[in-house]
Design a protein that fits this description.
- By secondary structure, the chain is of the alpha/beta class.
- Helices cover 38% and strands 14% of the residues.
- The protein is built from 8 helices and 5 strands.
- Strands 3-2-1-4-5 form a 5-stranded mixed beta sheet.
- Strand 1 and strand 2 form a beta hairpin.
- The N and C termini lie far apart (42 Å).
């Protein structure tokens, strides 16, 4: 298992006073919002990372809330979301940028954005951006952002279970699973589903 380090942050802080690790979760889900986490990082946090910090995908679900609490104690963080309806209206890339703008507005701190990925889906209007492949795995600030975003989005999807128990959101968090697909075929999509995404996944006889 690969652990994150602060090597890139240390390098970037030689030129920038602060860094904002940024990562998204929920991009590939069939239902629910996309969420973007933002974590504010300065030289004061170079000493030690929170215990158990990794890319959120590498942390057991039961342990993520505790790691998220440690991240929040480590530094300032925020999460922004774009709803399923917004994803339908403007597309996933613009919805990601919208969620990022909301996260940065909630954070309300300046810094070089360290963005996980291979291209800048943020655009240029939010300030300087450093793109880093596998930053959620390798960079502590981005791993921190991924954890807080994942935990908040998972909590939201779990809360939707009481309104839409047939889809099993508490277990699948809106992602594709055999039970989720079976429920879509039986009940059709809810208002939380990204309906334009379903045609390629469901059988041709699916009624929208």
């Amino acid at each position: 298992m690969t652990f994150p380090s602060l090597e890139l942050e240390r390098e970037l802080l030689q030129l920038h006073g602060s860094i904002i690790g940024l990562d998204e979760v929920g991009r590939g889900a069939l239902a629910g919002p996309v969420a973007v986490g933002a974590f504010y990082f300065t030289a004061e946090q170079l000493g030690e990372m929170p215990e158990g910090l990794r890319d959120s995908k590498l942390i057991a679900e039961a342990k993520r809330p505790l790691v998220s609490e440690r991240v929040e104690a480590w530094g300032s963080c925020a999460v922004g979301m774009a709803t399923a309806l917004e994803i339908e209206e403007i597309g996933i890339t613009k919805a990601l940028a919208l969620a990022a703008r909301r996260a940065l507005a909630n954070l309300s701190k300046p810094g070089l954005i360290l963005l996980d990925g291979s291209h800048n889906w943020l655009g240029s209007e939010l300030g300087p951006v450093r793109i880093q492949t596998k930053a959620d795995r390798d960079c502590g600030s981005v791993a921190a952002a991924s954890v807080v975003a994942k935990v908040q989005r998972d909590e939201l999807m779990t809360s939707l279970e009481q309104h839409y128990p047939q889809y099993g959101f508490a277990k699948n968090k809106g992602y594709s699973s055999p039970a989720h697909i079976a429920a879509l075929r039986e009940y059709g999509p809810s208002s939380e589903h990204r309906t334009s995404w379903l045609g390629k996944i469901l059988a041709a006889d699916m009624l929208f």
